[in-house]
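go over this:
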Amino acid sequence: MEINIEIELIKKFLLISGVSILCGILIGLEREVKHKPAGLKTITLVTVGSAIFTFISKYGFSGSAVDSSRVASQIVNGIGFLGAGTIIRSGLKIKGLTTAATLWIAASIGMVIGAERILEGILGSLIIFFAITILRALEKLLYEKLGIFYIKVKYNLESTQDNLDYQLIFEEVKNKLHEIKIEILETIEIKDGLILKLKGSKNKLKSELNKKLKSEHYNIKLYELKEF
């Protein structure tokens, strides 16, 4: 079987793959920093995958009956399933909507790049990055006004006890926060600890909580996050 190698097509493919990786990284940075379920790798893969699907729909099929827009519509459907997987409902609270929206917009950027609109794809990624950055700054100002802030609770495990009950540790953290009238708005699990979105007095947290979170089995260290 004769293999037909089209050098120009390969160059185009490598270009759209490389640009989509860079754009995916740019969009995914903010999600990765916030330890969200869909972080840097996921968003980059979504961007690259969308670009490749769009590219192959343009060059991979031939014939007058071929409708390349059908592939694009299936990309949108597929992203809907991925986005739904990041949305979690807990009581009256819904988490993951921003992550789902980021996946959706990353796929759209990938499709733009896959359609060989390289400049538009790069400009779109930059616009998204700056929009997220500006919105995060506005959110920070609003949170400061409302008394909302984030902390990282790091379990510094220095105990000889092998099987510590992390759920029990978290329950103790919650109880101590409740004692000093600080409300937990959101909980994000990370390696050996938690990130908590809190509402209350920062000064009270610093002065009282560190004294309370002591145990013979573990030592909890608190870190205030400047940006999250």
